[in-house]
Amino acid sequence: MTDPSSQHFGGLAGPAEPTGPVEPAKSVEAVESAAAGANPRPPQNAAGRRMWPALTTTLALLGAGSLAAAALVPGPVSAPVAPSPTATTQAPVPPQTPAAMPSASPVEARDMSIAELADPAWVSRIAAAGDIPERALYAYAGAAIEVSKTNPTCGLGWNTLAAIGLTETGHGTMNGAAVGPDGTVTPVIIGAPLDGNGTDRVPDTDGGTLDGDVTWDHAVGPMQFIPSTWAKTARDGNRDGQSDINQFDDAALAAATHLCEVGGDLTKSQNWIAAISAYNPSVEYNNRVAEAANRYAALR
What we know:
This protein is an all-alpha fold and 300 residues long. It has helices spanning 64-68, 106-109, 120-130, 134-150, 158-169, 227-233, 248-263, 269-279, 283-297, and strands at 178-179, 185-186. It is globular and about 50 Å long. 53% of the residues are buried.
């Protein structure tokens, strides 16, 4: 997108890198890539995301069912694998997410935090296998379960949200931050100013309320929204009556809702690619998210 105000999310805008190893995925093809062996830090777009300049690229169809659909089915199942960059694959039907046993009436359930939606035993097992903070995984899984109810045709999986969270802020652990028991990430994760220095110029839109800068916008929080986007997409995932950009349930639900709005049916490869590209149009970023999403989908 060329209009900064239309960017759906803010990205990593600072010098810090997310924690944990992330390799480019085999499931997205860039026809023209950077020189072999080189790994320069690309400039960033208006949302603060890294973007390769003047690349002529094409994205091969992904096995988007394994990316969009969470690997939340208890018991042994075949691990979904993304196709090769030149393959064309029909996306499989998303598996069902394992919600916790209901303990409240439908009316009371609407007031439950999304962190209460996922099966605790599943969260504990997958968090350990994937080296994901449990509190972050409760948010990713809960957001996926919630949008499966509010937007059942979307097909978004927890693994896509987790892949974005890893790539953006290392699941809320960047720069020494940590996820508290209530899902709040402290200290606040704030990206670099979007001042045109390797980024598009995005003048301040929130009076510095979220990012502390009255001159330029910054990406903020565990899912790295820019203030103008958060103003349009904010959600109250923990049902405390507030939408907090630094609270994981709120941020994960906002990301999930917007990915579905942007991409539609995310079990279709081209739609999944479009949704992730709305988060960040860089092919390198799309590759990294695809690789992580495939890896998380294989966890059991």
